[in-house]
Amino acid sequence: MIDRELPVTEDELHAYVDGELPAGRKEAVTAWLAAHPEQAALVAAWQAQADAIRAHYGAVAQEPLPARLKLDRVIRTSRAAGRRWQAMAAAAAVAVFMIGGATGWMARGASASAPAPAPSVFERFTAEALEAYRLYVVEVRHPVEVPGSERKHMTQWLSKRLGYEQRIPDLQPIGLRLVGGRLLPGPTGAAAFYMYEGASGERFTIYCARVETPETALRFKEGERAAAFYWAGDNAAYVVSGPANRERLETVTKAIYEQMDAGAKKS
């Protein structure tokens, strides 16, 4: 039986967009939207956004989530005091360029039966970040716990849970709005996860937490449909993940890195 008397809720509108509305309410919601053109326009915008996200990430949503992502070995370098983005990016480019040849050369003398080295804390941290990206980037209704409109509350909450002051970058100048954030478990404790979205539906995330690691150099990891830049500094590690478009991801990472670096110098 169709109940046309019950008021239409926002959750029902989201369920309508996602095709998850119970059959008994679908006709009532459709009729309600026909009588409320402003809300119908809002729902149409949500549907367009959902379509854009599915177009960008639909293939990723169908992939199985691995327990851990296998990370490429890269050349280990240390970051000198006061090093800026240009030097960090250059180091990452050199590492990616050299890794293929260096790994192949070292493998010539390696025994086929030799066990693979255990991943470092930094590598495990980055694997967790990429898994979180793959899991939440396809979500339309619940990609975050706290919306970007509650930035102050989110900053205070996650700062308290992680045990150090959170600095949430402003990426509006490069066309990305803050969707929001959430608290996640990480390999070293609590981790903060922030999501940003562009006008075309592209999404980027920041995953950060306290990490004690001697590794600090900026590194780049590319997969089939996702990529990440990651680095550590001031006892915290950061992973910026996004679509596998290195040039665009580097622009986003540069904006984030510079704001994080500037904030660290003030504190």
The count of strands amounts to 7
Spatial order of strands in the largest sheet: 1-2-3-4-7-6-5
Q: pLDDT average, as an integer?
A: 76
Calculate the terminal CA-CA distance, rounded to whole Å: 62 Å
CATH level-two architecture of the largest domain: 2-Layer Sandwich
Assembly state: single chain
Question: CATH topology of the largest domain, what is it called?
Answer: Phosphorylase Kinase, domain 1
Q: How does the helix and strand content classify structurally?
A: alpha+beta
Q: Compute the CA-based radius of gyration.
A: 22 Å
Folded structure, characterized:
The protein contains seven helices and seven strands, in the order H-H-H-H-H-E-H-E-E-E-E-E-E-H. A hairpin with a 2-residue loop joins strand 6 (226-233) and strand 7 (236-243). By secondary structure, the protein is of the alpha+beta class. It folds into two domains: 10-61, no CATH class; 85-106 and 118-266, Phosphorylase Kinase, domain 1. The chain starts with 9 loop residues before the first helix and ends with a helix. Helix 1 crosses helix 3. Residues 65-82 and 94-113 have low confidence and may be disordered. The radius of gyration is 22 Å and the shape is elongated. Strands 1-2-3-4-7-6-5 form a seven-stranded antiparallel sheet, sandwiched between helices.
